[in-house]
Amino acid sequence: MALWLTQLFNGLSVSSILLLIALGLAITFGLMRVINMAHGEFIMIGAYSAYLVQKIFQSSLPQGWFDAYYPLALLLAFALAFAIGLLLETALIRFLYGRPLDSLLATWGVGLVLQQLARTIFGAPNVGVTSPSWLDGGLRIMTGVVFPYKRLFILALVALVLLAMYLYIYRSDAGRRMRAVMQNRDMAACLGISTRRVDAVTFAIGSGIAGVAGCALTLIGPIGPTIGTNYIVDAFMVVVLGGVGKLIGTAAGALGIGMLNTLFEWGSTASLGKVLVFLCIVAFLQWKPMGLFAVRSRSLDG
Amino acid sequence: MPVSPTTTRGRLWLLAGYGAALLLLLAAPLYLSDFRLNLLAKCLAFAIAALGLDLLWGYTGILSLGHGVFFGLGGYAMAMHLKLEASGGKLPDFMGWTGVAKLPWFWEPFRSFAFAAAMGIVLPALLALFLGFFTFRNRIRGVYFTILTQALVIIVFTLFVGQQKYTGGTNGLTGFATLFGEPLKSPGMKTALYFATVAGLLAAFLLCRYLVKSRLGKVLRAIRDGENRVRFLGFDPSLYQMAAFAVSAALAGLAGMFFVLHVGIISPSAMAIVPSVEMVLWVAIGGRGTLIGAVVGAVVLNEAKSGLSESFPDMWTFFLGGLFIVATVFLPGGLVGLVRQLAGPFGRRNPSHEQLGESSGEQQPVAPREHSG
């Protein structure tokens, strides 16, 4: 019982991290059809901004204030990744709309440059980020079952981001414009929506969420220039499995992959577990090639 | 065939160019030091992989980021043969360290060179057929396929690292001594291996050229430019896609075998994500959709890599990243496309579709976007 509960919680925790990373992708890939391989590097940007804020708090502010650094780091991580995303969209991505494979290669290049930049600035070795003390310890459910506060915090954070995105996409004017552009670009443009601006903001939001994900990752381990690459392929699988264009699909995909991963790694070894998950995904796509929640479309090449 | 010139004179010039290039390659042992010759041989091995990738990406429009896996499978097949030969009748050293008492049955036949060499080509092709069967048949394509190939890289990488007792783990396989009883390091052997690689590259080039010129090649290009139209014409695109994928994987496996012979080591890092994507860059820089472009791209980039990373290791990554961006945004036709553009006012431009490479549907700045609603 205790073991099962722990595994269940681990699976949930892995899923939540995957979801946080995949949410940004779901926007850029799912809605804009841009394969942003530099997404992992936006995660890295978020992680390093948390590291920077922490450094500043440690060195130049009173000891007692240290615990307050984390919310600030979250904000900065979002803002920085948002700004760099906006820059990237304006400078590069907008020339690559409608050419998904080219966007993949170009953003891969951007990712390489950003990684090397981080290596030059912060050094190649991983750095640790001290978590705020209010996240130490855990919630004791029963004997032998402790849910760490950090993991619970990430779960809550993901739920919050998910809610915010839902409200933005489905309940706000900006979100309505965004959906309009994604569904029928020409018609949206005819109705007076600035598609250029919508594209830029959408991409930047996707990047910003990656920054938040990076900030969350500092809670569970050391960070380094290649932190993003460890997660990016899994996150893409989440989007593919969940189906493109719907938030609920992304959430379901993340839950599926996270749970399966934990289950298989528990039942066999880590390396065999990954193979099994991959086979499951390929098998699943035989049944539903468009993913769990496909957006119905009459267009042939949709 | 970068250009299919309409004039006899153009064709003669082209033939002369290819002949000169081949002569330069064949005479390389005369004017290159052993070190440089080895480097060139490695680049030529990579060029074989680039040819395969070009067949798949440039001609069929399927981007695989998983060719490192096929390259690695070929490499491991050859490496295991060399390892078994180096260990004599005994167990390979790494198996002893990890407590394996007896050579596993599936490595047993690799004592034979012919079997190992065959497996180095057949295994990648079979894996490609397997993956292709389960994806193309369901019309999983484009970026979805690309992402799946990348996932393939991750799992094969983890598998090879994890199954240390069978594969040597992170260190991979190294410490080879001889091939056919002849030391690998001897100058005669090095030269022979070099010529073998040139022959392999030539054979691969001619094979690809034949395929591209044949009816099959026409269908492949048609699939690239409009898969559904091909389907409506009564073809089954998935069969052709699987064929292209399998040939492409087999060529990558062949390249991996030559790579091991020249470099003397294969490790999982050779089949990780970064090398797999680098392969794509060779084709992109050289010029996708032209066979010679793939070869040129692979050789030029790898020579540049060893030159740059010897002196400025950090700069190489910046350079590589920059190249990806430049190649996709400014040089969609690659080096070959650039040369043609420059030659444009002088030579007769080739009106055929092929010259534009992949650009047909994708390059238009305001390409109609698919509607997802």
TrEMBL record, chain A:
The UniProt entry's GO CC annotations, sorted and at most eight, read: plasma membrane
Keyword set for this entry?
A: Amino-acid transport, Cell membrane, Membrane, Transmembrane, Transmembrane helix, Transport
Where is coiled-coil annotated?
Answer: none
Q: Which Pfam families does the entry link to?
A: BPD_transp_2
Identify the InterPro entries for this entry. Answer: ABC_transp_permease (IPR001851), ABC_UrtB_bac (IPR017779), BCAA_transport_permease (IPR052157)
Q: Kindly list the residue ranges recorded as spanning the membrane.
A: 12-31, 69-92, 104-122, 152-170, 201-223, 235-257, 269-287
Q: Where in the cell is it found?
A: Cell membrane
What the record says about family reads:
Belongs to the binding-protein-dependent transport system permease family. LivHM subfamily.
For this entry, the protein name equals: Urea ABC transporter permease subunit UrtB
Q: What organism is listed for this UniProt entry? A: Cohnella xylanilytica
Q: What is the lineage of its organism?
A: Bacteria, Bacillati, Bacillota, Bacilli, Bacillales
From TrEMBL, chain B:
Sorted alphabetically, the keyword list is: Cell membrane, Membrane, Transmembrane, Transmembrane helix
Renumbered residue ranges of the record's region Disordered: 349-373
TM ranges? 12-32, 39-59, 113-136, 143-162, 192-212, 239-267, 279-304, 316-339
The terms under GO molecular function for this entry are: branched-chain amino acid transmembrane transporter activity
Membrane topology value: Multi-pass membrane protein
Instruction: State the NCBIfam families in the record.
Output: urea_trans_UrtC
Write the protein's name.
Urea ABC transporter permease subunit UrtC
